[in-house]
Amino acid sequence: MKDINEYRKYLPDYLKKYHGITNPKKFFRCLNPEHGDEHPSMIYTPKYNICKCFACGVHYDIFSLVKLDFHLSSFQEQIKKVEELFLNYVPEKSEFNQKIIKYDYTNYFNKCIKNIHETNYLLQRGISQELIDKYRIGYDNERQLVIFPINKYCYYARSVNNDLKLKSKGNSDIWNKHYFLNGSKEDLIYVTEGIIDSLSLEMVDNKVKTTSINGVGNINSLIQAIKKSNYKGAIVITFDNDESGIKASKELKEKLSCLGVKSYDCNLSAFVDNAKDINEALVKNKKKLKESFQYINALYKYDNYLRTEKEGEDIVL
Ligand SMILES: [Zn+2]
Fold first, then answer.
1. Could you say which of 3.90.580.10, 3.90.1150.10, 3.40.50.300, 3.90.76.10 is the CATH number of the domain covering 4-97?
2. Which one of 174, 205, 273, 274 is separated from 62 by 20 to 30 angstroms, measured CA to CA?
């Protein structure tokens, strides 16, 4: 075990990895569930290794945050949890010099798949058992998290009780990344913010190719994946219908354009009773989501077809 003060220094990394806060030194939404912060009021203070809310006054170090996120009352449990989360973890600054350690989660996934019937979280959100089985989605009944395996070294998780979203440590990745491999020019791949949004698209079109970046902070991982696979098709960005989603869409569109990748920016959930994300659209009005999706999909397919035709002509000339 490390010195507990050493663990306190992991707070900014914890905020990044487990709360998706890309820059804790800028104001972010207060993590106090009772606050309901509309305007970001919390910030990380390196001097004390805490994050503090300037609206409601609450402050957390890594232990009190773990206490909150995992419902752990005793300090001993909190230390154990931080140790577990940061097991063999190399703090960001020295990451360059160290090998990133991979963990094989196969056994954990198998255990979670067996428990999936203990929660109806995804069914309630309109996702079918068929898709749950297809993606081998499981349930961690101790942590009360739905577990989405990405590959054997990586998973995403979301709490069934609150907004907590987790990424496995070590190696994080993009949902359904394989679609980018061997993509032809006519391909259209939908990119969503969260896996549940991707599954929601599959609920209205079982042939859709959809990937998810798992948090708007993860745009660069997506860019890397596209670069590596030399993807030639087009991308449809369908992020959340909120300020950060709209901002992230623009950012992604620009980065894709720098790569020479054609993209369309579509605030799809806004078409469906102004839902905040695709899953909410599915739950609110599946029929309308399906119709809206079919409409934009046909439009983009046609536009992308024209693009491939034109480029085809160029080569002939
Ligand atoms: Zn607050």
1. 3.90.580.10
2. 174
Domain made up of 177-316: CATH architecture = 3-Layer(aba) Sandwich (3.40)
Confidence of residue 315 (pLDDT cuts 50, 70, 90): very low
Q: Which amino acid is at 224?
A: Q
Q: How many CB atoms neighbour CB 16 within 10 A? A: 17
Whether 229 contacts 152, CB under 8 Å: no
* Cα-to-centroid distance, 28 and ligand 1 (Å): 10
Domain ranges within the chain, ordered by starting residue? 4-97, 106-167, 177-316
| Distance from residue 275's CA to the centre of ligand 1 (Å) | 26
224 Cα to the center of ligand 1, angstroms: 35
What distance in angstroms lies between residue 59's CA and the mean position of ligand 1's atoms?
A: 8
Ligand 1 centroid, distance to 241 Cα (angstroms): 24
Ligand 1: centre distance to CA 161 (Å): 20
Give the Cα separation of 12 and 236 in Å (integer). 32
Compute the distance from residue 186 Cα to the ligand 1 centre, in Å: 48
pLDDT in tens, 221-268: 899 999 999 899 999 999 999 999 999 999 999 999 999 999 999 999
